[in-house]
Amino acid sequence: xxxxxxxxxxxxxxxxxxxxxxxxxxxxxxxxxxxxxxxxxxxxxxxxxxxxxxxxxxxxxxxxxxxxxxxxxxxxxxxxxxxxxxxxxxxxxxxxxxxxxxxxxxxxxxxxxxxxxxxxxxxxxxxxxxxxxxxxxxxxxxxxxxxxxxxxxxxxxxxxxxxxxxxxxxxxxxxxxxxxxxxxxxxxxxxxxxxxxxxxxxxxxxxxxxxxxxxxxxxxxxxxxxxxxxxxxxxxxxxxxxxxxxxxxxxxxxxxxxxxxxxxxxxxxxxxxxxxxxxxxxxxxxxxxxxxxxxxxxxxxxxxxxxxxxxxxxxxxxxxxxxxxxxxxxxxxxxxxxxxxxxxxxxxxxxxxxxxxxxxxxxxxxxxxxxxxxxxxxxxxxxxxxxxxxxxxxxxxxxxxxxxxxxxxxxxxxxxxxxxxxxxxxxxxxxxxxxxxxxxxxxxxxxxxxxxxxxxxxxxxxxxxxxxxxxxxxxxxxxxxxxxxxxxxxxxxxxxxxxxxxxxxxxxxxxxxxxxxxxxxxxxxxxxxxxxxxxxxxxxxxxxxxxxxxxxxxxxxxxxxxxxxxxxxxxxxxxxxxxxxxxxxxxxxxxxxxxxxxxxxxxxxxxxxxxxxxxxxxxxxxxxxxxxxxxxxxxxxxxx
Length: 640
What we know:
There is one protein chain. Helices cover 58% and strands 12% of the residues. It is an alpha+beta fold. Strands 1-2-4-6-5 form a five-stranded mixed β-barrel. The chain has a four-stranded mixed beta sheet with strand order 9-10-11-12. The chain has a two-stranded antiparallel sheet with strand order 7-8. A hairpin with a 2-residue loop joins strand 1 (89-102) and strand 2 (105-114). The chain is globular. It starts with a helix and ends in a 7-residue tail after the last helix.
């Protein structure tokens, strides 16, 4: 940690942004105290005082940079809200950089915006705007002149409900425009984005041709980032079981595609030309899949890996993560509010800071077992048996799950229980699914019309079909298990920070205990019985499990007390009551003006408060605007 200066600078930069945007002094205290600890912890006495002062000044400067960037973002968004008033007309020119189809409408992302010169921004707006249209007629990288009306954001009327303004603010988008006129004034110079988008559409159409049912939508989301045909049922199925990460293009997909290309090329040429070709391929794949924040993070880190390989330098995962976090947060300080950003970065930190230490501690116990059994076999090297390989993977997966629990609770108000075992079955065949799906899709999109190739493409899709079918069956059976999903509600910031503090303290404390106190004893001991060795493994697992119980107690804590909430359900009724003893009541629950009020309003509200069971539900009369939400919730995650 002491030698990873870029990581320290990135953390200070992040806490500076959080201090301003969250308006919470606790982030300033943690940033300053953390910088002092990083400055003083394990410092060699021989280090010159001026170097310490320089290091401390850089840490403080990064914190101040974060504060300044956060203030700039607030000023930028405040000015934009005054400029783009809801229900007003506006005209501008801009470049179409992204388009996506969801909720039966097209969304066009416009950059390089130029406004009429008679406004306070001197004709330019340094941000993004989103156009919402029912027609698909936009060409990527083309410049358009747009006239339209500013649409009012849908605000979250109840806790736990979808907040459209917060979603677009995390993207640095101040307004959504409903265009009345959209005219191309300049064609794209190269047209690379449009060509990649056309290839993406053709590949998705190939999936629809050769795969049955909803499997084509699942494979398109996994390989192309195209979620237009991803059914709501399939999305919820993967999300509730905890494997929705395979639907998002992230480090797993980028590293798989990039390393496959790089290793193939390196067998035929030197590192430099292989790295250049791989860079073009990875950048093209990132643009093809939509360039989300998790994709940009993964692409950037993979390019840093290629640079390290070409120059013969060692690659440090945390340093690369720090560089990409600084780059992405500098571009958009609100990016930390995006689900993809949070999961992408915290997952990498969890691998290095939690999963690897837990796995290394277990490996040291396995090494002790091996040396006990083979103390007379000089010259042999340590290796794990099959059982230890499985347990090692389970421990690493458990470490990853422990790191992501607060994020799942914060964004989804709960976390899946069996995700570790599920990932052990899902991930080994994911590489085959992605590589085969991309190969078959690209072949079908490029040369599929040639006679005689259809049968070969169908053969390539055969393993994709059975792997996707295996995933769906596995998820269905997992959800039928008891307590498949734990609802704990949205935790407070102090709960999240305390959870991670306890988790790191337990994992690092046990690792330090094993290294400094137990390993020297094992090396001096010449006669250990097999049962004694097995007891050490059992003690480690039991100690780790007991020590982590406070983490779950912290993250699931919620204050109980008398509470009455009258939900905004439109034309209807919905009242939630909690008694001082913690008994939960609900009165009515329906609406005639809001569709699926149980799924989108009442259910998220209850999960936000950590309510997984309603003890008494009263219905005043059986009209639709009093009971349709209740009927939607019956048989779901919330027991009634």
